[in-house]
């Protein structure tokens, strides 16, 4: 029996990126606790960080590669090539070796590209794999397979933040470290249930709000942060851009902007000002006639004034981005910071709260159809995931490589995605468990989890953390699987470890990572380094110049368009139910890891539909089915509450069995195609 060992690493769950330490004995994690010196976790972890490690040894971990029997039957040459290594598992699957599985994958990809062309294959990565694996998957797809089609899970979360921020300030990333919350004078949280989704950041916000009464919160339902807010904004669905433009209107109308900052650091303010002042929706008085939301007509000016006159920060999450005007709303957020000079300073800035542990890193590595690593231009722009789905129907995409992403669960319009996948000749999946997409695959390869490997992760404040294994595993890392396939196609890769890949990243993506060697990241494991990392790292971005081509910040005005719930309210005809979805503290994304951890699953193992008490008469049974033209949910448990507004509903999306994402269609951000998960009109059927 081995001695207990304590190993430092980083939490595998959300984008906060907490520093953890684990008690490990006999190659098994015994417990996880906050690293005592952790600058992110500050001595605390949420329940996912603390109790979410049992999945590592879950009995149903994918340990042996699987190949679908029907795939072998349809591909006799492949079957013949690997026949010696194929053993029947059940009526659907055979087990095989890693070598045979990657041989089969290489043969099938070759055949498909010969028949349908090189661009008939695509890769979709998760945002929870390491930077090294994300980098290698996009390199393999772009250079070995010669297809431009790479995308990642950011498509359904923060792509509008990247788009909106790059358009206005040249960089799609948080501007400050979390600890600037202690330096700020005023905070706005909009479209983020921070307490559930980013709890350790929420700790800081609550702490400061309690001490200084300096918090404004806008959300469509009453969330925990409202309890600590000086300004409690409950807003209608799809009103973000409206409210943000109203704040800009107040700042302009009352001349609260920072003239020197505007002159020295920005372009286009005069045109923006003219447009805002003539915008029929920009005056907060608009809300005086919106029944149930009249309070906003007075609250918005108060928030705008305090924001403009103090050193302020704005925090947002998917409540901003997952709308058809998500990118425009992010631009509207950056406008506020540019007008008031609340950016490029300690304690003043913009904080998009990234969802997964490496969503920032996956984008930095070029796992996007329109950016190569380091946000350089790619040779050819590929298709975004919703476009890939359409291309599947058109027969232009015939194979998908899916690394740590669950296309058939976390994406919208699940029925349509499944129908599109039916048209494919080949689905290849690298995963920890038999997720929904793995169940659809032709070949599934079990890979190391974050707690079993070495790799770099970039958290929501651009902080790089070199994760080290807590336990040993014989499974391959994601990048090793890609390398094995590549070597059966071109034979160009000879990476011996993740460090060699990272050293290549530091050359290719030198503008952000040149100074971030493994050695240095190891030395600064607890402090972490924030990119760009050269001789020094960069805790606060945009201090001298914005990261646009000429260094100036830009205004890109977009007028709010009346629609949905706001339109119904303004025309006094609110009808039916408006659903929004989100996270709960105890589960994480598709719950493939958290649902295998007893303490977490005990807290939340069923999808609960929150309904306003005043709407109880419409919910005559304990469970209801929700329906839209795109599909229907499974029966959902109804819980009456005063925390959601009348005629609005809330539920989580974690459990595939709820079939919630069947309800959402193709409505998405106009610029960047992120699904509009945050509002849809649904029919309620009592069951
Ligand atoms: Fe892990 Fe996020 Fe919880 Fe921190 S806040 S412990 S990173 S899940």
UniProtKB/TrEMBL annotation:
Which Pfam families does the entry link to?
Molybdop_Fe4S4 (PF04879), Molybdopterin (PF00384), Molydop_binding (PF01568)
Checking SMART domains in the record gives: Molybdop_Fe4S4
| Enzyme class at the top of the EC tree | oxidoreductase
Listed A to Z, the keywords are: 4Fe-4S, Iron, Iron-sulfur, Metal-binding, Oxidoreductase
| 4Fe-4S Mo/W bis-MGD-type domain mapped to chain residues | 4-60
Q: What is its EC number?
A: 1.17.99.7
Q: Which Gene3D superfamilies does this chain map to?
A: 2.40.40.20, 3.40.50.740, ADC-like domains, Dimethylsulfoxide Reductase, domain 2
Q: Could you tell me what this protein is called?
A: Formate dehydrogenase H
**Species name for this entry?**
Sulfurospirillum diekertiae
């Amino acid at each position: 029996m081995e001695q207990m060992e304590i190993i430092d690493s980083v939490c595998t769950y959300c984008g906060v990126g907490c520093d953890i330490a684990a008690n490990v004995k006999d190659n098994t994690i015994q417990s996880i606790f906050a690293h005592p010196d952790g600058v992110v976790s500050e001595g605390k972890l949420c329940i996912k960080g603390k109790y979410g490690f049992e999945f590592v040894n879950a009995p149903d971990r994918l340990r042996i590669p699987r190949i679908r029997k029907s795939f072998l039957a349809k591909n006799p040459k492949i079957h013949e090539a690997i026949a010696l290594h194929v053993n029947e598992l059940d009526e659907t699957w055979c087990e095989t070796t890693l070598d045979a599985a990657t041989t089969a994958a290489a043969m099938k990809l070759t055949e498909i590209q010969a028949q349908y062309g090189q661009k008939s294959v695509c890769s979709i990565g998760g945002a929870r794999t390491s930077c090294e694996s994300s980098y290698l998957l996009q390199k393999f797809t772009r250079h070995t397979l010669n297809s431009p089609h790479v995308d990642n899970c950011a498509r359904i979360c923060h792509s509008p933040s990247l788009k909106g921020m790059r358009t206005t300030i040249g960089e799609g990333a948080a501007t400050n470290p979390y600890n600037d919350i202690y330096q700020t004078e005023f905070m706005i949280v909009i479209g983020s249930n921070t307490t559930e989704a980013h709890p350790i950041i929420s700790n800081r916000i609550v702490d400061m709000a309690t001490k200084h009464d300096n918090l404004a919160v806008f959300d469509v339902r009453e969330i925990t942060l409202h309890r600590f807010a000086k300004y409690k904004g409950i807003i209608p669905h799809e009103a973000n851009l409206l409210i943000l433009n109203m704040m800009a209107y107040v700042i302009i109308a009352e001349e609260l902007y920072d003239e020197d900052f505007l002159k020295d650091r920005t372009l286009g303010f005069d045109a923006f000002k003219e447009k805002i002042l003539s915008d029929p929706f920009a005056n907060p008085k608009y809300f005086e006639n919106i029944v149930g939301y009249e309070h906003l007509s007075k609250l918005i000016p108060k928030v705008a004034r305090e924001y403009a006159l103090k050193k302020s920060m704005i925090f947002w999450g998917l409540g901003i981005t997952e709308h058809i005007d998500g990118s425009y709303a992010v631009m509207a957020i950056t406008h506020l910071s540019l007008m008031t000079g609340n950016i490029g300073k300690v304690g003043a800035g913009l904080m998009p709260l990234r969802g997964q542990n490496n969503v920032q890193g996956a984008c930095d590595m070029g796992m996007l159809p329109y950016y190569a690593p380091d946000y350089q231009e790619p040779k050819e722009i590929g298709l975004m995931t919703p476009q890939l789905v359409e291309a599947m129907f058109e027969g232009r995409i015939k194979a998908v490589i899916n690394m740590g992403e669950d296309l058939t669960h976390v994406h919208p319009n699940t029925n349509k995605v499944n129908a599109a996948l039916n048209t494919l000749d080949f689905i290849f999946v690298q995963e920890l468990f038999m997720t929904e997409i793995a169940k659809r695959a032709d070949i599934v390869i079990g890979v190391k989890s974050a707690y079993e490997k070495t790799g770099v992760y970039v958290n929501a404040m651009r902080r790089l953390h070199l994760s080290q294994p807590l336990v040993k595993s014989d499974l391959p890392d994601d990048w090793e699987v890609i390398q094995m396939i590549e070597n059966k196609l071109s034979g160009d890769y000879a990476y011996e470890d993740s460090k060699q890949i990272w050293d290549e990243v530091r050359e290719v993506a030198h503008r952000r990572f040149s100074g971030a060697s493994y050695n240095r990241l190891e030395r600064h494991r607890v402090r972490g380094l924030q990119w760009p990392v050269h001789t020094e790292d960069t805790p606060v971005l945009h201090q001298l110049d914005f990261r646009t081509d000429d260094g100036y910040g830009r205004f890109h005005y977009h007028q709010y368009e009346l629609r949905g719930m706001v339109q119904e309210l303004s025309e006094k005809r609110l009808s039916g139910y408006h659903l929004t979805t989100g996270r709960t503290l105890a589960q994480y994304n598709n719950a493939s890891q958290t649902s295998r951890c007893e303490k977490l699953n005990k807290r939340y193992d069923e999808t609960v539909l929150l309904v306003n008490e005043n709407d109880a008469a419409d919910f005559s049974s304990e469970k209801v089915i929700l329906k839209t033209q795109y599909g229907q949910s499974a029966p959902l448990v109804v819980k009456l509450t005063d925390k959601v507004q009348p005629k609005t509903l809330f539920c989580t999306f974690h459990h595939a069995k709820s079939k919630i994402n069947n309800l959402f269609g193709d409505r998405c951000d106009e610029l960047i195609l992120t699904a509009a998960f945050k509002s849809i009109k649904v029919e309620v059927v009592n069951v």
